Amino acid sequence: MPRWVDTAAGEYAKRLPRELKLQWRDVPLAARSANSNAQQLREREAESLLKGVSPNDHCVALDGRGKPWTTEELAAQLESWMMQGQDLSLFIGGPDGLSEDCLAAAKQRWSLGPLTLPHPLVRVILAEQLYRAWTITIGHPYHRA
């Protein structure tokens, strides 16, 4: 990731409490060529992605066809996830999206909205929104909407 992504996402990550530590795991893109098939690329990337997920993780796929949550709804989701006591894995798709295997492994699908966002920006948005949601759960004044 570019330095600005690590700086911005890192700023929000360091504000979170120890029990909400963010860890990013980058999965290399499958090799692409002029004859690449998007479905096959998604499947190859899914193999790497799913290998890094524990069977006990609560998986959420970021998917444009998923449910868009308000910040307050995300805060309620965060509280629910924390009460489950499981690690949370958020799947961010590559340029071709997520495979059906990743979508099937996810217990939830979350849409960040109808816009197509670049992968680095999604990381920053996730870090900020998770921080914002956490501040709502503890009554911190960061979120003033």
List keywords for this structure.
145 residues; alpha/beta; Alpha/beta knot; three-stranded parallel sheet; tRNA_m1G_MTases_N; rRNA processing; Ribosomal RNA large subunit methyltransferase H
Please describe what this structure looks like.
The protein is α/β, with parallel strands linked by helices. It has a single domain, classed as SPOUT methyltransferase, trefoil knot domain (Alpha/beta knot, 3-Layer(aba) Sandwich). It has 5 helices and 3 strands, in the order H-H-E-H-E-H-E-H. The protein has a 3-stranded parallel sheet. The protein starts with a helix and ends in a 7-residue tail after the last helix. The mean pLDDT is about 95. Its main location: cytoplasm. Homodimer. InterPro entries: Alpha/beta_knot_MTases, RlmH-like, tRNA_m1G_MTases_N.
Short description:
This protein is 46% helix and 13% strand. It has 145 residues and is α/β, with parallel strands linked by helices.
Secondary structure topology:
Blueprint: H1 3-15, H2 38-51, E1 58-68, H3 71-84, E2 88-91, H4 100-105, E3 108-111, H5 119-138
Strand content: 5-15%
Mean pLDDT figure = 93
String of helices and strands:
HHEHEHEH
Widest sheet: strand order? 2-1-3
CATH topology: Alpha/beta knot
What structural category do the secondary elements indicate? Answer: alpha/beta
State the major sheet: 3 strands, parallel
- Radius of gyration computed on alpha carbons: 16 Å
**Gap from first CA to last CA:** 31 Å
Domain count: 1
Number of helices: 5
Helix content: 40-55%
Number of strands: 3
